[in-house]
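Transcriptional regulator of rhamnose utilization, AraC family: structure tokens wanted.
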Amino acid sequence: MNKIVIDYLHGYTHIEHEQLKQNKFVFDLPLAAFQNTETNIILLKEYFLKNNFIYISKHTRFASYPKHSHRFLELNYVYSGQSIQTINGEKELIKKGEILLLDKGTSHALELHQKNDILINIIFPSDNVDINWLSNLSNKDSILFNFLAQTLVANSNKNYLIFRCAKNQHIQVILDQILDIYFTKTILANEIISLYIPILFTELISNCSYDFHQEKKKKSTTKL
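Answer:
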């Protein structure tokens, strides 16, 4: 990986300095990026996916991040350390090299990340998922096909996948290349990364174990 990118990932952002200084969570998003409800913070597609461009960021460390959900697919990659999250009410430990894929509407809160707990957020437009590629996955009876296909037609399924892929070096190389391209602002970065996404998912579903979690449906009762 490019040294500039490594230095950025390990370095402290302004918000991280503030969270260390104040010893509490400092909200780092403008009003245009989210919507508040009584029980949740909703991060908006219109802000993060302007012009349908892929958005990648480093999660801020040194404070817990409150419960929130998204109107887009989000991929969390644990670059180093670990990430402890409560997802749809379930506590999950995601270790170095592992990947969490969150469906639209899935809520999660993140516990405090220490210095070496570096988490990368990768957000991409679900409507840019290639249909021909999805069709190939469907022929393999792929759970990833079902996950992605459903999110294309539904507003929210509130499901998530955890890929236990820490030992897969191919995946680590693909992700390193994606981060290099994005953070060094390579020419045509969005177009290049868009080509990497299907390659990444194909490798994940072919050569990684994974945990699939569906939202627990509440039983409805009818009064007579």
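Confidence is low (pLDDT under 50) at residues 218-224. The radius of gyration is 18 Å.

Cheers.
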